[in-house]
Design goal:
The complex is a heterodimer of chains A (685) and B (121).
Chain A (H helix, E strand, L loop, with lengths): L3 H14 L25 H17 L24 E2 L13 E7 L13 E3 L4 E3 L2 E5 L4 E5 L6 E6 L12 E3 L3 E4 L11 E6 L4 E6 L14 E3 L19 E3 L2 E4 L15 E6 L5 E6 L3 H4 L12 E3 L4 E5 L21 E6 L5 E6 L15 E7 L2 E9 L5 E5 L9 E5 L15 E5 L16 H6 L3 H8 E2 L13 E4 L13 E3 L4 E7 L3 E7 H7 L9 E2 L6 E7 L14 E7 L4 E7 L4 E2 L2 E2 L13 E3 L3 E4 L6 E6 L5 E6 L9 E5 L2 E8 L12 E6 L2 H4 L1
Chain B lengths: L8 H22 L9 H19 L6 H24 L3 H25 L5
Classes of the chains: A mainly beta (685), B mainly alpha (121).
Chain lengths: 685, 121
């Protein structure tokens, strides 16, 4: 029998929860945004992989996968996307003494209440050339002193601040390139690149902030010149290019869910000095590009320089929730695809979702790592996904490290015309999924009780036969766990090469999706402004509605935790530890940390045995023990830090820097804060 | 009959606690990086503390035990609600202020009771 105390606690909790959980806008392309299954890398690609591996043994130069010196000169720190720093001045014993050393507010922020759209700032600072480079959502580049945050120079692209393809002004920052042997006194031997919403890529001298006149058209490359199919909107360059040698490997973002057709996914290799296009990769077969589209790369990529490979996380085709216009094979959609960085040829490709009708974009760069399994050293990569899967394959060949099985999946109720679902989908046997998608998530009794059974009633109306239950037109639709907002996002997996531990943050979010025939859609989404979650997929026979499963008080209908931090032993693929991450917050009220928070952003890990991460709704920055998962330090930021932090050493002192820019996926809180932490000088000496 | 200063002590403590809570809530709302700056929750805490302060001011002037007791119950609910809100806002000092306010309320009841039932010589 419940005691008075527990009843009071529950009542209090319920009251608090009534204020909790902002409608989670949905993640598609960071927006809101008949296939025979194959369990092996593309056949032609396997051959190419072998040839590639053989030729590389002869010709490639030795470039260690983990840089020999501390490096944080790209979006994920290093090209391997490990987000790992060998620095250990800050360690698990002293991280509690961490102090804010400087803080900068860029002024480039909007909450959307005025004339400007809101900002979404998911950048990671780039440390190079003894400078910290930042790209803002107003499309400016700032060069800061790494020790003080003092501005060295700034560059304004003067880009129009219009949300052309996204609901917000977005940026994930800058990329940095330098010549192998920079010539002293000559400009543009070191270049910083920033892309814009209207598809312009700017190149400026890293020392002066002046445009590089030899790059494209006086320092500006019009990427939209290559937008030649379904060009309803520009190819927004929100993610900085991945710099591999002298190549800028560039993807772009589009506008999901609005139309049946979209520009088909392309990735360009651009000469870092001149802006000339070197090759173009198409993710979709030629005959599918016009009728469908996307399968683009809108997030960062990783690269193995020694083996000359760049790894593309490829998104899903258009439209995202109906596939009747793309029933042919599209083996590189929703895939990890390895390309020869010099030629753009496909070396291998693994499709993680066949005939994707769930918007399971591959949304983070695969993390490259050398792992030892059963005594054998394997050049591997880990691809995290929205589904909460971690696919581990040999990064040279694409072959399984632990078996990835093709398993039969639900075939729907037949209510969706023209759909031709895949019979099977790939399931990794190890590591175990980060969340259990095999059964309908358990209803949270508290949310159900305070809503007088609303959650139970909703659950009864939703179809769920495990993940990959296809969308339906019936009832309230299909329960999706996870869907576009769930699992792992663009922060990806961090990796400590010493202990061979992978670290990843994941969300647990239940959504539900329903398709509406065109007539029914027009009726349901009447434009009164009261409808939530509708997207038209214009041109397709079905519009859709995607919502988060909450009760009328805004409480999640499923059991917490809502987000976790997980450490995995990559010798075995087993979980070392897992713990709720952060706290959910609504209207300022913090929920218990044991419930965790949905997370956007990602970790960084250091040789000091410390994991740094923001990513949570409560806008706190935290440090955890790599060994135990214990929380060691926290500080309050202006807004959620929705990208990986950067770790660097400057003049003998180790710094960790976060950008707290916020993302409406978590809540409507925006920021323009760049904040650096270090040990007090006495400690660091 | 107006209360003596000693009889008003409880209300004074309650008033001071509410004003302190108000100041902290104001700081939490306006100062950057409090974690709740600019939030509806902090605004609610500000308004709740203002309401408590006003109620503390009115309390000594009320006539009749029944009216006073109803008023005290309202104050108690206000203190409890503000305490809980402050707890969720991670504003521990507001919680402390509410506890002090509760002490003031208890004092008010005890002193009023003594005035009604003076000790026998």
């Amino acid at each position: 029998m419940p005691t008075l105390r527990t009843t009071a606690q529950r009542l209090g909790t319920a009251t608090a929860l009534a204020l909790f959980l902002t409608p989670l806008p949905l993640l598609a392309q960071d927006q809101n945004a008949d296939q025979t299954a194959s369990n092996a890398p593309e056949k032609a690609s396997s051959q190419a992989a072998s040839e590639q591996a053989a030729s590389q043994q002869d010709t490639s130069k030795s470039v260690p996968l983990v840089p020999g010196t501390p490096t944080w000169d790209s979006f994920h720190g290093q090209l391997n996307a490990q987000k790992y720093s060998p620095l250990d001045q800050i360690n698990a014993d002293n991280v509690g003494n961490l102090k804010k050393t400087w803080e900068v507010h860029t002024g480039d922020v909007s909450d959307g209440s005025g004339e400007l759209p809101p900002t979404v700032w998911s950048a990671t600072p780039v440390f190079a050339n003894d400078t910290l480079y930042i790209g803002t959502p107003f499309y400016r580049i700032l060069a800061l002193d790494p020790a003080t945050g003092e501005q060295k120079w700034s560059f304004d692209t003067n880009s129009k601040l219009e949300a052309l393809t996204q609901p917000a002004l977005k940026s994930r920052g800058v990329a940095y390139w330098e010549a192998e042997n920079p010539v002293e006194g000559k400009s543009c031997q070191k270049i910083v690149y920033l892309g814009t919403m209207d598809a312009q890529l700017f190149a400026v001298d890293a020392n002066t902030g002046k445009k590089c006149s030899n790059f494209a058209n006086n320092g500006v490359l019009n990427v939209n010149q290559w937008n030649d199919t379904n060009d309803k909107w520009p190819l927004s360059v929100l993610q900085p290019p991945t710099v591999v040698g002298d190549h800028l490997i560039l993807g772009w973002a589009g506008n999901d869910w609005a139309f049946e057709q979209a520009p088909p996914g392309t990735v360009f290799s651009i000469n870092a000095r001149t802006g000339e296009r070197e090759w173009t990769f198409h993710a979709l077969p030629k005959d599918m590009r016009e009728q469908s589209g996307t399968a683009n790369v809108w997030t960062h990529m990783s690269a193995d320089e020694e083996n000359g490979l760049v790894y593309l996380p490829v998104s899903s085709p258009s439209p995202n929730y109906w596939g009747g216009n793309r029933t042919e094979k599209a083996p590189m959609a929703t895939s990890t695809t390895a390309l020869d960085v010099d030629t753009g040829e496909v070396v291998w490709s693994r499709q993680w979702v066949h005939h994707d009708v769930w918007d399971y974009d591959i949304n983070s760069a695969p993390t490259l790592m050398d792992i030892t399994v059963d005594g054998e050293k394997i050049p591997a990569l880990v691809q995290a996904t929205k589904q909460g899967f971690l696919f581990v394959v040999n990064r040279l060949t694409g072959e399984d490290v632990w078996p990835i099985e093709e398993r039969p999946v639900p075939q729907g109720d037949g209510s969706v015309k023209g759909e031709k679902l895949a019979a099977t989908q790939p399931f990794p046997t190890k590591p175990a999924p980060l969340l259990d998608q095999s059964e309908k998530p358990e209803i949270w009794g508290l949310a159900d009780a305070v809503s007088f059974g609303q959650c139970s009633a909703l659950w009864d109306k939703l179809t769920y036969e495990g993940m990959y239950t296809p969308p339906t037109t019936k009832g309230e639709g299909t329960l999706a766990y996870p869907d576009s907002a769930g699992g792992v996002q663009w922060g990806g997996v961090a990796y400590d090469p010493q202990s061979q531990t992978a670290i990843v943050n994941t969300s647990h979010i239940v959504q539900y999706v329903k398709l509406y025939g065109r007539e029914a859609y027009e009726k349901a989404d009447s434009g009164s402004g009261n409808e939530v979650g509708f997207s038209p997929q214009k041109g397709a026979p079905y519009g859709m509605r995607l919502k988060v499963a909450r009760n009328w008080l805004g409480m999640p209908c499923w059991k917490p935790p809502f987000g976790e931090l997980v450490a995995l032993d990559m010798h075995t693929g087993d979980v070392k530890w897992r713990r709720p991450l952060g706290a959910s917050q609504q209207y300022g009220f913090f929920m218990p940390e044991s419930w965790g928070s949905p997370t956007i952003g990602g970790p960084a890990v250091t040789a000091g045995g410390v994991i740094f991460i923001g990513a949570s709704m409560d806008a706190k920055l935290r440090a955890y023990s790599l060994e135990t998962g214990e929380e060691l330090w926290e500080d309050q930021a202006e807004a959620p830090a929705v990208a990986n932090p950067a770790v660097y050493e400057y003049e003998g002192r180790e710094y960790v820097v976060f950008i707290a820019g916020g993302n409406s996926i978590l809540k409507d809180q925006v920021g323009d804060q760049v904040v650096a932490y270090a040990l007090p000088k006495d400690d660091s000496e | 009959m107006p209360q003596s200063r000693s009889q008003r002590l409880g209300a004074i403590v309650l008033l001071v606690a509410s004003l302190v809570g108000f100041a902290i809530a104001l700081y939490a709302y306006f100062a950057p990086l409090t974690g709740v700056n600019g939030t509806l929750g902090a605004l609610v805490a500000i308004l709740a503390n203002i309401a408590l302060a006003v109620m503390a001011l009115i309390l000594p002037a009320l006539k009749g035990n029944a009216t006073r007791n109803v008023w005290r119950v309202l104050i108690l609910l206000g203190l409890a609600g503000t305490f809980f809100a402050a707890l969720l806002l991670h504003q521990g000092w507001i919680c402390v202020a509410m506890v002090v306010g509760l002490i003031g309320l208890i004092l008010d009841m005890v002193l009023a009771n003594r005035a009604t039932h003076p000790a026998q010589p």
